[in-house]
Amino acid sequence: EIKDILAFLRLLILNSDFLAFSRTINIPKRGFGKTTISKLFFLSEKNGIPIIPFLKKLQQDPSSYPEIRLNLSQKNNLENYLKSLFEIRELYQQNIDLDELISHILTKMKYLEYLKEDPISFEDRKENIDELITKANQAYENNQSLEKFLEDIALATTKIENAKDDSLKLMTLHNSKGLEFETVFIVGLEEDLFPHVNSKNSQEEIEEERRLFYVGMTRAKKNLYITHSLSRYMFGGVKLSLPSRFLKELDAEYIEDLSTPYQQNYRDFYGSKPTFSKPKVDTDYISSSASYSIGQKVFHKTFGKGSVKKVYQTSLGETLDILFEGSHHMRSLVTKYAKLKIL
Known about the structure:
Elements: H1 2-13, H2 18-24, H3 34-46, H4 51-60, H5 72-93, H6 98-108, H7 111-115, H8 119-141, H9 146-161, E1 181-186, H10 203-217, E2 220-226, E3 231-234, E4 237-240, H11 245-248, H12 261-266, E5 297-300, E6 304-314, E7 317-324, E8 331-334, H13 335-338, E9 341-342
Parallel strand pairs: 1-2
Antiparallel strand pairs: 3-4, 5-6, 5-9, 6-7, 7-8
Helix pairs in contact: 1-2, 1-5, 4-5, 5-6, 6-8
């Protein structure tokens, strides 16, 4: 699924990427077999036309290329494919956020419907896409172009493929069953991640995740490291994280706490409550100590001009939800770090 989305992204900037086309033309299924795809590639090469412009010309005037005949279904599917692709290209040329660009790909190419054809793997694959969207959002915040984003991913993939035998092994807890290692790291022990948000309303599913956590812990022969984040970038914004309930079930006698003093003050690992307060959900709430107000116009050096939609207090201090011009989703910024200018 990650390679599928990256292939769609490559087609936005490169007309001649035949591999990206061949990967995406049948997502979802459009009735193009290997023989037909090979003929399309041969004819585009023969005529010296990059694959996407060639397909557009073929769609508009099939008689120009009598060597290949598409049936009615293939013609309609090709037309829809190109229509969606060019619509997404127009959005890309408008410099929308990378995460929004991926969301449009999912919608216009009906990719999630395609994934739902396999309900067993759907949730895991959807989470992988969500992680890609998060990475894309971070790239956008760093003023990274789509070309640079794709280049960095390609370099990272090459490093993984060329990894030596003594490299770290990254796997899911399910895939770790039956294996043992000298040292194991289990990351992301946070509420809504582990246990997953979709499991929280089912005691049976919570128990299953608890057993899975046990499986992960018992993979370690000598050293076991368990980590969680104080905050996490998810779904287009920074979210404060609560330690997983599973951490509180561990016997403190066997745990060496490696948290920094800041982290220890930030929350109590083993107490009944976290030491920070959750963000208020009441959009009309404004802290009495707030220096910002709802509706106020501000400027950020990266995101530009925006309007304050919500003001609240977290353990990090005064926090704002801001809708910036040209964006369709809110960004959460802590005022003492954000360096905002009031307009």
